[in-house]
Amino acid sequence: MWQLIDKEIDSRLFIGTALYPSPDIMCQSIKASGSQVVTVSLRRQNPVEAAGKDFWQLIQSMDVHLLPNTAGCQSVKEAVTTAQMARELFNTHWIKLEVIGDEYNLQPDPFALLEATKELVAQGFEVFPYCTDDLVLCEKLVEAGCRILMPWGAPIGTGKGLMNPYALRTLRERLNDVLLVVDAGIGAPSHAVQAMQLGYDAVLLNTAVAQASDPVKMAKAFNLAVSSGRLAYEAGVMPERDLAQPSTPVIGTPFWHQK
Amino acid sequence: MLHLVRINLRIMVYRALSVRDLNVINLYINGKKEEVESERLIDLLTQKFCATDKFAVAVNEQFINRQSYSDFLLKEGDKLELVVPVQGG
Q: What is the DSSP letter of A156?
């Protein structure tokens, strides 16, 4: 068990609900992932069509903690209003705050993100900011009241893994008291292992599972990868060396001849 | 006498409300221009969007909480956003 803000949970994998081949496969994948934190969103729709109601009923039946996002927002005002709507709609004060600054690579706008964070923290939200791996930005988000940060591994949906392990390692070393989650860019279970071995508290992903040939099996693979990476971090990975060093004792080697 | 004044006042208020209700207001609902006959937000929501209670509302980028629906009055050109839960990453 670990403490995620005001909840005690087991899993260190947060998973998204988008892009699955069907609602049934989405549900099976979430179960296979073992995740207890699931991201959701809100969009324009004629409520008469009741599509939102169907999704709501489905996700409610899963007994998971919901983390609504502000995906697509490009300004502080949009993000704050979307967060307010999400709080009422999903009945949670948790918000995955996304304020996009560049439409091409979906990079967060650090300035708008910080401003929106300050506003939402003042309104009682628990802000989970989707941010870049910039140390100064992350420190300022913590100063603004964030108890958790979610730096990207790579741009959303690219599956490139951890593009800047140095920056992510630096964040972990410098921000000891903050929960850190790698969000976005994870493509393979090996990327999740790498993030967890760095000492990150969790990993958030969506596309890597939803767009796999077999999403349910991939969800299970990520479940194991995150657990494995966390165990490795707790066990302490050996230091890397440039020179080879035999693991089998040298003394008593047969056929050894002194030169 | 006082009784008659009260009745007249009621008639005046009723007429004023009736005239107001007959006014057509142009709104933008989820980006689409629409005409509505009542300026009361609650009327719009119950008449047009009563199939589900799972939605949230913003007017001109301001969040309108559920408790405010009954009192909120719309005006010409207002931009409404009505959103529902969907999948997200």
A: T
